[in-house]
Specification:
The protein has 391 residues and is α+β, with helices and mostly antiparallel strands. It has ten helices and 20 strands. It is globular and about 65 Å long.
């Protein structure tokens, strides 16, 4: 958590300018250090929450942005291990996963589909994050950031923070085979290319989510009670990007008054309440299933073909470029070539319980989570985000 040498402020008034118009944002911290942000419009409200969020969790937010951009290899080296949420793998595997499964073009498309007031809120939030950093003195910067890397936050980062929940668990099955899958056109098997990136993904325990709802038949009075108990982490280091949470209250007088907890980077309460309803979360990954489709694949003249309706079709090739930190301290760009079927990326996976081996000359199993599944998942999150905005 961000720490200052001076006492925690009890309140702060910010002036936010957008398109030549000025508005006031009030932030009041409770005796439990929970910020309440009040503004007259969504963009100003987002600005205030971005500022408060950065004050409390700046370095964690920077770490999330670096990971979701697929840049951990650039700052920490490709072979170092890190924990994303509760999954431990190499930085290169993490970077390849997010570059493949959360591509920039999808991020921009999902952003454009959000309602104007939601886009305004996200824009304000990002501006608030960056404004907090800009306001730090040199002494405060060293206290808060130290020697860790810093980024300029972008609107796309917020969309990536949301999209990650649909793909993180895919790391368990395909993470250790990403590098080998990129080398499939050269007929390199996993047994011939032992490296840290082939290490099985470690699932760290101690995380989960619980929720209990008590109706009017057991609660005194006319109301009900919802108890949300999502498990997360308190401690952090640059190589443990837990699913940190943050508590806040967001208010636009006469339009919005909501309180609860967010995941870092997702700027609205995922578990919380307003005057009319309360809500909680369970396992975020369960709402988006993925499919592994066994494919009949062959190599032909350094190209990959796969069978559709009894006929071979040529797979398209997609290049993923990853910036990597070298021992010399220099940054080098490495390219990884992945085959693409009409269903998705082709991944070369070994035999596992109840699943046949997939490799050359055996078939390569494709990660068949089509784009429609990602879009469906984000539509559900947009509905939730926009319904909160309208309350």
């Amino acid at each position: 958590m961000t720490q200052f040498s001076q006492p925690v402020p009890e309140s702060k008034t910010l002036t936010y300018e957008s398109q030549g118009k000025f508005s006031q944002v009030e932030i009041v911290w409770s005796d439990k250090d929970v910020p309440r942000i009040q503004a007259d419009n969504y963009e100003s409200l987002g600005f205030g929450y971005g500022y408060a969020h950065a004050r409390d969790r700046l370095v964690e937010l920077v770490g999330q942005a670096i990971a979701m951009r697929g840049q951990r290899s650039k700052y920490y080296g490709p072979e170092a291990f890190s924990t994303l949420g509760f999954l431990k793998t190499t930085n290169l595997n993490s970077d390849l996963m997010f570059k493949l499964r959360v591509p920039d073009e999808w991020v921009k498309e999902e952003l454009e589909r959000l309602k104007p007031e939601t886009q305004d809120y996200i824009t304000g939030y990002v501006n608030g994050l960056n404004y907090f950093v800009d306001c730090l003195s040199e002494t405060q910067y060293q206290q808060v950031v130290g020697q860790e890397p810093m980024v300029q936050f972008e609107v796309d980062d917020v969309v990536r923070f949301t999209m990650r929940f649909g793909v993180m668990k895919e790391l368990i099955e395909i993470g250790p085979h990403l590098v080998d899958s990129a080398n499939s056109t050269h007929v390199i098997s996993s047994s011939e290319s032992t490296s840290p990136h082939n290490t099985p993904v470690e699932v760290e325990g101690g995380f989960g989510s619980n929720a209990w709802a008590y109706g009017g038949d057991v609660v005194e009075g006319d109301g009900a009670i919802l108890v949300g108990n999502p498990h997360s982490a308190w401690q952090r280091n640059p190589h443990q990007l837990r699913i940190y949470m943050h508590q806040c209250q967001l208010t636009i007088p006469g339009k919005l008054d909501v309180a609860g907890t967010t995941f870092l980077g997702f700027p609205l309460p995922l578990t919380g309440y307003n005057a009319d309803v309360s809500w909680s979360i369970l396992d975020a990954a369960t709402v988006t299933p993925y499919v592994l489709q066994l494919m009949d694949v062959k190599l032909e003249h350094n190209s990959i073909k796969y069978v559709v309706d009894g006929e071979y079709q040529s797979a398209a090739m997609r290049t993923i470029e990853i910036e990597t930190l070298q021992e010399s301290g220099e940054i080098a760009t490495k390219s990884f070539l992945f085959a693409q079927s009409h269903l998705g990326t082709l991944f070369k996976l070994p035999q596992s319980p109840n699943k046949p081996a997939a490799g050359t000359p055996s078939p390569i199993r494709v990660k068949g989570m089509q784009r429609v599944w990602i879009s469906f998942y984000l539509r559900q999150r947009r509905v939730r985000l926009e319904s909160l905005s309208s309350r």
